[in-house]
Structure formats: structure tokens, C-alpha cells
What does this fold into?
Amino acid sequence: MKTLTLCFTLVTLFAVTLTATEESKTEAANSPGSNPEDEEPKEAWMRAPAGGVAVKSGEDALLTCVVLGARGKPVLWKRARDLKVLTAGAVRVTRDERIQVLHDDSEEPLQGPGIKKGGDVWALVIKSVKPTDTGLYMCELNTEPPVRSFHKLTVISRNLTPPDSQNATDSYSANAPTLSSSALAHNYTDCCVATNVTKGCLGYCSIQTILDGPGQDPEACQADFPAIVKCMADGRNHVPCCIQEHIPDICQDVCRGEYSPVTDNIKTHYSCAASMEKTLACIVEGIELLPSPPEDLEVEPLNEKQLNVTWNPPTENSESVTQYVVNITALRSFDAHLIDPSESSLRNDTTKMSQPVTIKVPANKTFLVLNDLLPFTMYEITVTSYNIHGSSLPSYAIRGLTLTPGKMRTTEVAAAPKLPDVRGCCISAGVNHFGCVDKLCDPTKTFEIGLQVTDLMICAPWAGVTFGCLANGLDHTPCCQSRGLPESCLPLCSGNITNLDFNHFKCLRYMSSYTNCLLQGYGVLPGPPSRLHLTNIDTDYAVVHWAPPAALADTVQYYNLHFKSLQAEDDYRTLDKLQSPYILEDLESNTDYEIYVEAVNEHGVGDASPRLIFRTQSQIIEEEEVIANAYNITACCERVQLSSVCLPLCSYDAKMSDLRTLAPLCEQEFHKLVRCGAGGRNHETCCARRGVPASCRGACGGAYSGLFYTCIAYVGNIVQCFEEGTGQLPGPPREVHAVVNQDKLFLDWTAPTDGANVTSYNVHWQKIGNNTLPYYYNNLQLDNQITVNQTMARIEGLEVNSTYHLFVVAANEQGTSLPSSMLLLNITDDKEHKEVTGIPSPPHSLSVSSHSATWLALSWQPPQFSLPDDKISYTLYYKMPSLTGQGNVTAISTSVPGHTLEKLTPNTQYVAWVKAHSDAGDSLPSETLLAWTDPAYPAFVEPPTINPVNLVVEGSSMTILCIAMGTPTPTISLYITGRLVRQEVTRHMVTVVHNVTRDMDLISCYADNGYGTPMQASRKINISHVPTIQASGITMAAAGDSVILECRVEALPKPTVAFWRDPNGRISVIDGPNYTIQLLADPEEPTKYTMRLIIKKIAEADEGDYFCHAENAFGKTLRPVSVRLRNNAPHHNVTACCNQMNVSASCIDACSFHLDMDNIMDRPECMNDFDKLMKCAADGSDHRSCCASWGVPRNCLELCRGGTVAKSCALQHARRALACFRDSGAKLPGPPRSLKAHAAPTPNSVLLSWEPPLKNPQTVYLYRVFWRAYGAKVPEKLDTSETSVVLTGLQDDVRYECVVKAANDVGTSSLSQPIMFTTAGQETGAAAAPVEGSETAFAVGVATSCILVAAMLLASLLYYKHKKNLRLKAQGGVAFENPSYLREPNPDTVVNGTILNGNVVANGDNGIGNGVSISTAWRQETQNPGPTIPTAAAREVDPSLYEELKLGHDGAGFKRLMP
It folds into this structure.
């Protein structure tokens, strides 16, 4: 198939050639004559293509070739990458039917010079192009040599199509370069892997992945970018393309395969983002067209003036290389006498580097001999590949050292002496084993014996013969001993060995040294190199010299150099195939090294030279000399009094981290930093070249325009221009002054004190008129200008009675300075000489940056014309136009270009202007500004906005936005649940509150600006939270009781609740006949609930732990609550008590375990024993709470604890009292026993002790002690949980009486037996004082009660206010107290004592015991309801005030003390 295609192509070419020849002959014959302008060129040539063609995938591509002077020769279109012929003349050769040729054969002339009629245009058409069609195409004229033009076709992928408005035939445009599919396929991942690029950063190792997204943050790959960019450039020089695409020079390092890593230095933070796409387009284009660098560059010195340079062609696009360019740079020249160590070894200073020399070498040569070089000089050499499109990057640099005078590299090596015929000796001695002859009888192969033990074993029978022949009649023992061979191996060296045994196997490891001794003994190896020495020892290199060995020097092929560092104790590093002298590089400074050299010939390595030890020079970092006229930016900042906190920014090497940190603090000082950074020089040209946008170039001229945050991306570009300009641009002229004489002007100034040399000065002047523009940074060209070379100038012909402004700038070939000052001149007819001194230009761009009703914030730009180190201050003047007179002008001095005028009148116009002041003088006023303050409006605040909306969760964060309107700006205050959280003068205040708690449910925004009425807006929010549970603990009950277990739940949103029998929730309590579960909402607090479990008749199976479970969307909570059954103690035996109380025999049968009330009522004779019977039935317990809940009146409640009452009470309420005895008798405690008084160790005190009651002692948790002075009416009392207490504050000569009663969670007992005591202890047989007093005492009590009525009215109000705290508790949770509390003094009032931290401290004669706490159970008390009476009807009837006074006065609660 290929043969047929080739034949078809040749036939077609032949036919086309004949046809074209005939046509040309016919055309020439028919031509009547020709104009000289129409004559064909003598030589054929082609018009260079205007650029590549870029089309979208699927469209038709048209490549146009203009051929002049074809003279009938055929035009061929070829594909460059494989040189495949596509068309020949007008005939398509390829089988691809998409290929066509358009050729104009008409007789009509075409428009354009040099294009004749009849077809000088040959167009290749490719229909429906594919990405694989991308590449170069050749238009070739079949001449000798061929004439060619190259045409680039780029097929644009659909997802990279540029806007349709662009010309598809342009080369990649400046706005949107296009990348072909082959360009996008540029993948250099292998190179990245070879250079150890981090695996996560390999996404940057392909153009396609860069465009699609590399998948890694660029910040994380900063350390790998130098290697990535080097691999991307692939050794090609893309800089010409980058220059053509107007890529800033600061961004062209990527085009060279270099990358400047971003550090904290401010100069490394420059922006190249805008040019990155163009840079990638240049790189991918260069990868297709440009050659790679030459390979394997080597340099060999020939003599003192010649170096031989060799290289290999590049690996990429080598066929397109047209030439090589060799670059030679002389680095350092040394004195020739330094090679002789006997002479002076004074350090030779480096000479100036000569200019680099470039030599062009044709593409068919890969070597070059450099001539006319300096002797004993170090040269650095690189080679670069070139083709018609551009060049590669230079190859790696290699250094070479020319020889010393008189020396020349020997190019011929003499033959080494021949080895003795050991093989023939062995054969003649009868060794007939081929393997033994081949290995043991060849001195060059004996070292191979060390690889296998079997060789010695096989050849052991011939050991004496073979080793004798190897010795060749010589004793090599001394050499072997010096090489470290063991004693048992020395017979091998002398040849005196008869047989081999296993002891000789250890010699195998020494066979290499043994072989070397044999060769040395034969005299075929060169001797040790001589005169090893070093010259030019530097910090990182040294020049090593040596002389040839004394023996067999002419046979030496090359030398091996061995060196190692003595500090690190490294092994020797070997450099082979060297010649003297040699530059030993990459050494460490101030380090000791050891070196030696060995000569090598065709037989092997000779003896080593003596070791040489040397130390490299110390690395001394020399400080740069401060030149007297160098610009010092730090001194400038100090002179302008830059704030000390901002001084770290006053450096061309400032840190970017400092800039970010100090920017908010130093924003008002930036104009000083920019002025000192510019140094009075105009850097705008450099900034434009380095890609700084026009809006940011004001800083390049020393004018801070306030666009810091907009231009921060270009700070590195600007600072680099600043630093570069200090060494290239001239500084500003100083001390400019003028002398005016009528229409003449004489100028004089002082030359710049820093910066580059000034070559000339430009004087600008202009007449001031009504249309004159003010001074801005970009208006440095005036109407008139002259250039002078001295520091003076004369201007004539000025218009009289006119005003001129003038300034002077210094200039050189690099650029100009900025003006240092301006002169304002009035030209008059006055003949007297008037001297005018330069002053700063006026401040400009005065404007209002912000405003309100009571203040105006003004800002302006500093003078453009001033010295960079001028200390400039300002005076701001303002007044109200409505007020006339100079005294109405207010002047404010400031050092920054901005000020806020405060305490102004709302809705008022003000006039303002500014002057600048420096050491040179005061400037003219700036432009005048008219500004109005805003009208005043009262503050208006909107309701707060809370985020998240309706979903604030406890413990999370919420964001509160307060928006307030009004002029002037109001002060917004944020209150959360009435507490001030934040206050700020603003219109929008955003506050983030962390760790939200559930009480933060009321948010208020308050605004006030001093005008009108302050305003407040509030919003109530719901704070969701996990349920919290408070459980009632352990509840005691008797079998058969109805028990209520309660848990208080607080949650939002409303929880779902359950009672569990186990903590894991596997056994739940379900509503049923014996269980009722309730969830009751608190009517006053909607987030609080009460969950109840009612056990109607508790049994032993119901005893144990229950778990209250509450759950909502934000979590769940579990708390235990328990119920325990009391041990059912035997009922009180009423009969035994009746016998003890001497109940009459006729009524004794009424006594049983439960008193029979019907039996008593039927027998009147038992009414005399009624009090005894009731006392026995009460069993020592206080049932008054139960009776009160059943409606027993207060005057009859004594019946309920077995006391004596009126007969009417007994007859009416005895049944109810007995019912209470039956219901709660088993639950209430009995009275304390054995109450005793003992002498206390402290004065004025006594120790009381008692025993727990016999009845229910385990349930008692509180005792109440009552005592009083004998005969007193009102007792003292205290509560304790112990069975002893110390009473203090007593009097030694006073007798006291005391009783105690017990209490549990159901109620209280009756009082114990009273005792009498003094501070000395209990009185034996003493009776308590009678309760009944005299009538006089009673009268005094009544009078006292009347006086206290008014006070008690107030107390009653407080009582009713807290009445809700006296609610009756359900039977399962019975309260402690009972109605006896109301018949005793108020427990909340401590008599003769004060409460400190919950402790009672005795005070006075009748004090309370030390350290005894008063239980809160006596403060908020409820009554115990009966088992069947509803709660609403179970409330106690409050006593009248008179009853309270009376009961408290006549000793209520101490009835047992009555005789």
C-alpha cells in the first residue's frame, strides 16, 4: 500500500511539473512585452506569514501562501511534524478528502504590490478541522535549495473558544490567547516527579489540569513552584514571546523557567495574575516550536589559551536547530606564579569580569575550540540552541580552567609496558584446566577469584604452579604487607606455596590488593603523582595541581581525585577522569579537607600521592559600603517624623506580615511612607513596565491616592521600582530660588544630594490664567520647557504684569526626578531685583470623605511638589459664610492630610481650605470647599433581628442586628434581659452572643442621638434547650397508700415524657388501673411542666426506682425518683395506755387498737375519761394538720393531739380526730424521750439532749426545741437535726423550762415531757411554770396586742401576698408542718438573733444555739389534706389577728406545761 501511494505521488508530481512547464512556456511566448515593474524577481521568495491561524474545532481552516518568482515551479504543501506531502500544485496528494488547494488561475490582476496575476497565492484548505490538525504546515517551492514558509494552525477546543468578536485568524490576541489541544496536552509530570515535587502538587504539572483546577491550594505548593516552573518551561526561552505579549518584565521569570518564591519580604508580593494566561500561551507555543538546550556539555583545557567545548544536540526539536551560540564569561584570572608553592602565596584579588563573548556555531557542529584565552583563568561556558522561531534556555553552566603558561595538554598516551607471559608459564608447567588457566594465570583477572570460593577449590592441585608463575620470579611480600594482607596470605605474594587449604579462603577478600601488587611488581603501573598542591583556596572551591608521576608518566590516561571532609568524618568521595589543574568546587567554608590523587593507565590504578590537608576560607559576609550620596529611606522617615510604630514599614525590605498588622494603625501615615519610598524620583515609567495599573501609579510618583486596599496586590511591583530607581534615577533638585528683574528671570538651585548622576535639568514654567489646571501628580508638563546642564538657568521674555508658576526636575538617561518645590512669580515693571524662594505646592483634592449633622470629615492630598524628607504640617481653616469677619475663621493644625470638624451646627454650610507648611515656607491655599452638615433627625430604631430565626439553641451563638436611623448617628445600646451588653455610635450594630442561656429571651435595641425622644424596640425570643428535670427524691409510703411521684421539667419545645422502671428505657410505665401519668403545664411559665405518676394503691411490687424521661428535638434527660414502703410497725395498743392512765373499769372495753367512738358515746359514764381516751388514741403524735384539713376549727385542734378541749369540741369533732388518728397515726413520729439538760463547758450556756421517739424514729429528720425563762409567756425556739443542742446567751441566775417535739415529712409529734434547768444543769423534781398568768399580766398582753394591730396589718398583707406558698401538698408528698405552727411564734422572725449565711447567731439574753440552722421547711408550710377531701377544700382557715395575738401571748403550744 505504501509503495502504491509513493508511486502515485511521484507520478502526480511529474505530471504537475510538466504541466506547469508547458504553461510557463506558453505564457512567455504569448507575452508581448513586459514593464520593468512587472518583471519577475531574479530569485524566488515567499511572503512571511502574518501570523498563525486559529479556528474553532469543526470549522474550515485556510492557510495562505504567497509565492513570488515561482517561474512555473510547483508549490507543495507539507505537514511539518512528519513531512507528509499534502498537495502538489493544484492536486491533492493525500487521501484525506478534507484537504484542498485554492489557487487563482484567472487573468485578472489581484490587488497588492508585488502580486502578479495568474496565481501567486496558494491556499491550503482543511475542512472540518480536528484537534489533531494542530501544528505547523510548510509551503515549499520545489527549487534548489527549497524556498519554504511555515504556517501555524491552532485548533481551539470548544470549551476554550474566545469571544466571537475576535478575529479567528489572529495569533493569540492580547486579550484572550488561545491554546491548542496539543498545547493543552503539555504534560511535564515526569519531570516534576524526577525533581521530587510533592505528590499533592502534581496537579500543576500539566497545562490542562492547571486550567481545569489543580486541586491544591497554591499556598501549599510554594516550595515546589521553582521545580514546577522549571519543568513547565522545559528548557525553552519563552521571553521573546512574553515581551511580544507585553507581559511585565517583573512577571517574565516564569518565561525563563524561573520562579521567585513568595516570602515575607514585601518585594515578593507582586501581581502577575493578569498576564498568567498569556504566559501559559507563550509557554505552550514554545514547547511546540523551540528547541531544548544542548545536552552533555563538556569543557577540556588544551593549553594556556585554548579550551575544547563539546556537546550533544538537544532532545526536542533538534531537527529544527539552525545554529548554536556558545557564551564564554571570564570569572577569575590567577597569577601563574601561584602554581609554585615555594613562591609567595599572597591572596590574589579578583580581577574585573570581562564582557561575555558569544560565538555562533553551525547546526551540524557540536564542538568548538576557544582560542586566545587568558592563561590560568577560570571560564564559565554555556551553549544555547537556536532555530527560526527562537532559542532554548542556556545549557547548564560548566567551568573550565586554562593551563598555566608553557603547559600543554598531552593528547597522545604512550603504550604501557607489556605484562609477563604468565599464561604460557602455566601451560608449560602442565596446568591443563582451562578455567584455572583463564583466571589464575591472567594477572588482570585474578581479582575475579574473590567472587567464588569454588575457583580456588578446583584449581588447588595447580596452586604452586599458578601462583609461582604469577610472582614471575619476584617477591611481592613487602607490597602485600603494606596493603594489609594477613600473614597466612603472604606465601601467595612470594609464589612459594605448595598446596591450598581452607586457611587460604580468607585471602579471597584481598585479591584486588594482591592483583595491584602483582602489576606494581611487574612495573606496568604508573607511580604516584608528584607535587600535589593547591592554589587559590576560596570559601567554596580550590584549584588542585599535581605533576605527572616519575614512573611511566607517558602512559597515564587520566587521574582520580579523592577528597573528604575531616570534620564530618565522611568517606572519600572520588572524582575520576580528571587532569591537572582541577577546580574542586562545592566545598564548605572554614572546613578541613584531605585529598590525594592516583594515576590510571590501561593496566590499572597506580600508587596514591601523599595526602594533603587544607582548610577553606572563612565565609565573611562583608557589609556593603554606605556610599556618601546613597539614598537612605530610613533617615527620610525619621526626618518626616514617621510614627515609631510604623518604622518597620519604612524599608524596601519590609515584611508583608508587618504591613498587614500595621495597616490599620499607619493608614494616616502612608503618605509619608510613599513620599520617602519614592525618594523624590518619578518611577511611573518603571511601574508601567511592571504592570502597575494607571489607577495605582500615583504612588510611583510619591503621591498617596488613598487606594491602599485596591493597590495592595501591586505593592511588590511598586517597591521594586522604588528600590531600582534609587540607583538609576536622579534625586530632586534642592533650594530652588529665583531672582526676578522685570521680564527676566534667573534661576538657581542645588544639585541632588543622593541618587544617580544628573546629566541635565528640565525647567518647566507656565503663565497662570483662569483656565490653568491645578497641580496634580500626573500634570508635570507645563507649556514651556528648557533643558540645561548646570544648576542655573535664565528665562527671558516673560509677560509683564502676569503670574507664572515654575518648577525644576533633574534628568538622566534613565528618567527624571520629581519637582522639589514650586515657584510662584509675579512679573512687574519694577526694576528692583526680587528674590523668590521655592515653596511646597498647595495641598489639593480637598473633599468631604464623610459627614453627619454635627461633624464633617475632610481629607486632602499632600503637596505634590516637595522634598521627600520635608516635614510637612497643615493648617485647616473653616468658617460659616453667614458670619463675616476674620475672627470667625477657625484654624486647626494637624500633621496628617485629614481632619474631622466636630460640634458643628446641623443643616449649616461651612467653607474650608488648607495650607501646607515646611522648612521652605508656607504653600498657597488649596482649593476652597463648600460643605453642608446634614439636618438633624431623631433616632428611630427597628426591632432587633436575630439570626438564626426562631431557632436559637441554648449553648450556641446568636447574631443580633440593631438598626437605627437618625442624624446625627445615634448611640445604639443592646440590652439582653434588661442587662446592657454593648453600646456603640453607629447605625448598624451587629453583635454575636456566644453560649446563649435560656434566660436571654428578651432582646432590646435602644437608640438615642440627643435629638427627640430616645426609642427602644424589643423582641421576645424562644430559646430552645434540652429538657432539665428536678426530681422529688425518695418518697416514703405505707402499703395501700396512694402515692404521687413528681418531676419538674423545663424544656423548649414541649417535651414528650415517660416513666421508666429501668434507666435504659426498656420497661416503661403505662397508664392503667393502678397508674396514671400526667403532664401539667405551668400556667405562669410556659416552658415549665410537672410530670406525675400516680400509684393509686401501692404494693410491694411497686416499690423501687422510677425514672423521669423527657425528650425533645435537642436532647433528652433522665432523672430517678424513688418510692419506699415503711415497715408496718404494730398499731399502738390503746388498752395498755388506758390502763396506764387509770381509765375506769366501766370504760376500759372502749380501749382497743383503735378507739371505739360509738362505745364511748353510748355510755355517759365514759365522758369523764374522754380526755384520757383521746390522749391514748393520739399516741403522742400531732394530728392537727389532718384535722384542720377536715374542717376542725382552730379552738378545737388541741383535741387532735390528745389535749383537753371544751366538751362541745369533743362531742362535735371527736370522730374526725379519730379518723385522722387511724389514717396517719402509723406515719407520724412519737414525742422525743428522755429530755435532759447538762452543764456546758462555755459560760451562759447549757447542753440539751434527748432520745429519738419510739414511734417512727427512722423517719424523723428535724427536732424543734422550745425554751423560756420560768414564768415568761413567749418562748424561744430553734430547729436541729441532731438529738442535742447547746443553748447560749442564758443567764446564770435564771431558771428555764424546755420541751422538744419531733417532725418527719408527714407531720410532727406532740411535745415531750417538760424539764426545768439552769446553766448548772437540770433541776431534779422541779415543776414547770403554770401557763395561766394573773389578770394583770393578761391585761398588759391585751394592751400590747392593741398597739401592734397596725403593724400586723402590714404583716397580713405580706401573708396574703405569699399565700400561694401555703398550698396543700398531695398525700404522696406531705409537707412537714401543721397548724401547730400557727399557734407558735413566727419562725421567720428570729427573736434576739440575726441570720448570717443561713446560721443563727445568739444575741442577747435569750439567744439561739450556736451553729444551728433554721430549716426552710418551717417557712413555707402547707397542710396535710385528708385522703378524700379535695385540695381546694383542704386549705386551712386563716386565724384572725386577735387570735394570733392571743394564742401567741398565752403560751400556745405549751399546754403540756400547765399543771
Observations:
- The first strand starts at residue 45 and ends at 46.
